[in-house]
Target: Triosephosphate isomerase
Amino acid sequence: MNKIIIANWKMRLGIKESVKLAEQYAQRFKDAARSADLASRKVVICPSEISLTKVREAVKDSPVKLGAQNVFWEEIGSYTGEISIKTLEEAGCEYVIIGHSERRQYLLENYEMIHNKTKETLDHSKITPIVCVGESIEDRESEKRENIIISQVQQAFSGIQLLPNQQAIVAYEPIWAIGTGQVIRPDDVENMHEMIRAAVVDMFGVDVVKSQIRIIYGGSVDGKNVKKLASLDNIDGFLVGGASLKINEFAKIAESL
Ligand code: 13P
Model:
């Protein structure tokens, strides 16, 4: 599977700003797609939901793919303010971020909800779920760190099967590294990804993991620290917040992969 780099614009841009940045992405990666090297990397942008349809127009003639930052777990119904997977599909999304730690923190999302959202996505759409896992600073210091991550992965995917044409992404995003400039040590991320890979192999088997599941890293990745991380065996890509708001910085990350 080729590597993937995903921009999470969070709630940082309005509609016009999102379209403007999306146009810069489209231009940058349209040119880059001609180079064999960059053509083999997937680039995904996740703007706010209200910007999706306009951003789709801005990137339609480029290799840049569209993703959403959230989805609801029911197919249709009286769920004020929520958005269904079918609507995201209609808006042109090919990816959706599920269970970001900011949603776990501010909206009290738990792993039952994250599981339901993952299942809904795979059961009712062609969209690839990007399931976020990651520990707090307190968990990091404790001996339970590894168990916490394994249990997050197991809860999110329990009982879920991937059909041969489906993919899933696990994004390891330690909460203490998000937006803090605190970058994880390469050996640390290597260990954590190895452990996550073992957990998904237990659930899905080696072959499915090899061809259908990516494990990517997120947390203060930028143009400077990306080189060390990109060279690791167990990293299939990045989920980038702050650095994805500047096209040059993001392109640097994409080019290092
Ligand atoms: P930063 O890259 O700003 O640390 O954010 C990471 C993140 O939360 C991506 O989902």
